[in-house]
Amino acid sequence: MAEPQPWSGVHAQRGMFVFICFVWGTTWLAMKIGIATVSPGVFAGLRWTIAGATLLLILRARGERVMPPPRLVPRLTGVSVLLITLNQVIQLYGLKYVTAGLAAVISSALTPIALLFFAVAFGQEKFTWRQIGALTVGCVGVFTLFGPDALNGTLRLSEVGGALGVAIGCLCYTSGSVMTRPLMRNFSAVQLAGLTDLIGGLILLFASLLFEPGAWTSMTFHWGWASFLAWLYLLVPGALLSTTMYFFLVRDWGASKSGMYAFISPVIAVGIGAWLFGEKLDWGDALGMALMLGAAGLALRRGGQPTAMTVSIPADEVI
Q1: What is the pLDDT of residue 119?
Q2: Phi and psi (nearest 5°) for 175?
Q3: Where in 63-216 does DSSP place strands (E)?
Q4: Measured between alpha carbons, how far is 208 from 40 in angstroms, rounded to an integer?
Q5: pLDDT tens digits along 203-232
Q6: Domain coordinates of the chain in residue numbers?
Q7: What angle separates helix 189-211 from helix 242-253, to the nearest 10 degrees?
């Protein structure tokens, strides 16, 4: 299904990419604030459920299709569970036991590598020297920026488990991101974002209410202003806007190139931390940020993106 042309322009794509980099560079702090007082499953499940329902209601009000074809529901549900349900609950529980800096190291380094791996594994993209160079430079930059602090001292078993949770959540998200691209032959980007948010959020919320300690207490919404504002920030810029924009970029740029936000978002997070909270910013930090920006620039140069979706799906699944 074709999208309105303004979303497809080069300047619009770059603007969406910059917006995603900024918002997703500040979400670690919001998540850390929220899960300090709210059960992770409820905190995330409510956000994604409301985000998905909002997007679908907007589409419905515009007279556009909302419901998916029945034959695609199993595939759509599987993608939603990877993108939202498993990614969020595993990652948020991991974040409870590691610092935001270590979580940023894992997520920033693993996201573009995993996206490229899964894109190649599913036959959507091929390795190029530019991609390999960008990934190498970006990973060096990530560890130059965060590595010394994150790896300082001996990690406790809980920290190792937390780091593993962040990594597994990242792998769930990246594999789900790549699997959404074939579905975009059947759904608009906004419709797909709304459906995956709603399905994944509902599954996460119901599972949380059934199995997660403290979930029903969190449903009383006695969160405090800090947690509520953090949740609202994650809902509107983080879910409603950024996730929808990300689907457009995955459609037009491919998963691995879109995933280069992971090299820029940590730079934004460090800059904001130094500006607002007086966190340190030395020459090593500056070098790490420069390397990550260089990696993103290398990957985002014209000619480094797929011009069309190279994946194929059975003819009986194309609407």
Answers
A1: 80
A2: -65, -40
A3: none
A4: 8
A5: 999 999 999 999 999 999 999 999 999 999
A6: 10-307
A7: 130
Could you report the per-residue pLDDT of 61-103, keeping only the tens digit for each? 999 889 898 999 999 999 999 999 999 999 899 888 876 666 7
Per DSSP, the three-state class of 214 is: coil
- The residue with tokens 């929220």 is 34
Other C-beta atoms closer than 10 Å to the C-beta of 131 total: 22
Q: State CA 304 to chain mean position distance.
A: 21
* pLDDT digits 0-9 by tens, 241-284: 887 888 888 888 877 778 778 778 877 777 776 776 666 666 77
Contact 237, 22 (CB under 8 A): no
Cβ atoms < 10 Å from Cβ of 64: 13
Average pLDDT of the chain to the nearest whole number: 80
d(CA 314, CA 116): 24
- Residue 308 banded pLDDT, cuts 50, 70, 90: very low
Q: At what angle do helices 40-61 and 225-233 cross, to 10 degrees?
A: 40
Q: Tell me, yes or no, if the pTM score tops 0.85.
A: no
Task: Give the span between the Cα atoms of 81 and 261, in whole angstroms.
Answer: 22
Structure tokens at 5: 């042309």
For residue 226, what are its two tokens? 């800090």
Task: Please report where in the chains the tokens 């349900």 appear, as a residue.
Answer: 85
DSSP code string of 232-250: HHIIIIIIIIHHHHHHHHH
Q: For residue 140, what are its two tokens?
A: 């060096």
Running DSSP on this structure, what letter comes out for residue 95? H
With b meaning 16 or more CB within 10 Å and e meaning fewer, what string describes 23-59?
Answer: bbbbbbbbbbbbbebbbbbbbbbbbbbbbbebbbeeb
